[in-house]
Each structure stands twice: as C-alpha cells, then as structure tokens.
Amino acid sequence: MPELPEVETVVRSVAAHLAGRRILESRFTSKFVTPGSRTRLAQRLAGRRIESVKRRGKFIVIALDQGTLTVHLGMTGKLLTQGEAGEHTHGVFTLDDGMLLYHDPRQFGRIEWSAGEPPRVARLGPEPLEISLEDFRARLKRKTRIKALLLNQTFLAGLGNIYADESLFAAGIHPLAIAARLSPARAEKLYQAIRGVLTHAIRLGGSSISDYVNAQGERGWFQMEHKVYGREGEPCATCGRPIRKILVAQRGTHYCPHCQKK
DNA sequence: TGGAATGTTCGGCT
DNA sequence: AAGCCGAACATTCC
Predict the structure, then answer these.
(1) Under the phi-then-psi rule, with left for phi > 0, alpha for psi from -120 to 50, and beta for the rest, what region is A172?
(2) pTM
(3) Which 3 state secondary structure label does DSSP give A183?
C-alpha cells in the first residue's frame, strides 16, 4: 500500500489521535514485523508518552518521551485507530485514550524501537518535496537507469513503484534513461513532475490499489488519476497508443513508448 | 498452477 | 567502486 503519499495520509489521520497519549500496554505476534524480543519491546513501550507522529520517507516516526518507535508499512501494512484484532493483526497498542492496531498480511512491514535516531531512517536520502532543484540535479549524476534510481531510498526518500512510474510519465522520460545523461532541462522537468505527482496524490489521500486505507479506514482516490501504473495495454491519455509494461530493477514498470524518451 | 503484488536487504557477479 | 541481478521474507489474488 504505502509510498510517500499513503504514509503521509496515515500520519495526518493518526497524529492528532496519538499525540499526548500514553501507551498502557502493547502486544506483538510476528517475529518478522517485530524482530528480536517482543516482550522486551512491549516492556520498553509500557508507560511511554507519545510526543509526536511524523513521516520521513516511507517511515512513520513516533517520538516517545523515551526513545523512538519507527513503523514501516512494507507492502501491506495498515495502522488503524479503530476496529478489532484479526488473523493478520501483529501489533496491538492499548492507549490511555483509545487504541492502535497494526495489521499486515504479508509481514513485510517493521515496528522497531530505538534509543536515538532509527538507523534505517538515518540512511534515507532527502525528502522529494524539500530538496532543492540544484541538489536534485547533483544527485542525478549516476550511471544507472532512472527508474532504479527513483526507487533507491538513499537517492530520494519516499518514492515507490507507483509514483516512480507516474513521475516519469509526467516528465516524458523513459524509465531506462541513464540518470547522469538527462539534460538540465529534463532533470528540472522530472523534479517538477515528482513534486506535482506527490502533491496531487497527497491531496487525494493516496492511492488505494488493493486495500490501502488511512488510519480511519478510508480509501484514497489517486488511483483514479494513474496515467500508466496498472494500465498496461490501455491507451495513453496523451497519444492514445498502448501503455507498455517491462521489468526494471525487478519491478513492473509501466510507460508510454511514444511519450517517454530516453 | 505459476506469477505478480504499493518494499527492503543481502550475497554474488561483472 | 558501482551497478545489476536474483533470492529471500509471507500472504493473497488472479
């Protein structure tokens, strides 16, 4: 479910509910979602006060009065402030007012506590909506395919398969184009395309392509605006020719062969 | 039945 | 060193 716009939507929908709350008790049931000792994690969280909830890349960063709780939704993770625990619920937090559930069928997500800055967050590249054009251009100087670079979280933090494809389409850039060979003008076009796509997606509450929902269980609507993702064989919105799907960096990659040039 | 799915990490190869 | 590829993680859906 979760790339930058979806995680941003979750954070916005959950922040007010969680800020100032105290964690009375928590329970974890997956050795994948919560690696290490789950009872020790629960002990660490017991009695902690939630100071703030923010997004960094695709991570949900929950600052506590002691340490930081970091949540990554992986592929199918959900954070819910209502509902009941089910077969795929791997985290249950009882708060002094309300509750919080972590639901994740594939268990690719992670819930981790750290004393200081979470190591995985420390490795992230800049935020796509905060980086300057100059820094963006400088970071493009890599001899790799642009699609692969956009998926690399140390390049920019938060783009995933949907928004990489949609941004490249909006910029008219072929996913196999070599990053370092993009002209300054095309680099700026990509920079603006990323900003535009992400901003628009956040405004629509993200993309609900299978079952993504925010913390209140509401769907997003940006999937209605997808121009290429999930549209293999459909006519391009610009030229009418069929959208093609190829494999790049082991990920399905959707693009218009006519509108997107190397 | 096999393959693919919004993600990340790691080992091995060139 | 940099970049690429395949595999691994676990489950559902078509």
Answers:
(1) left
(2) 0.97
(3) coil
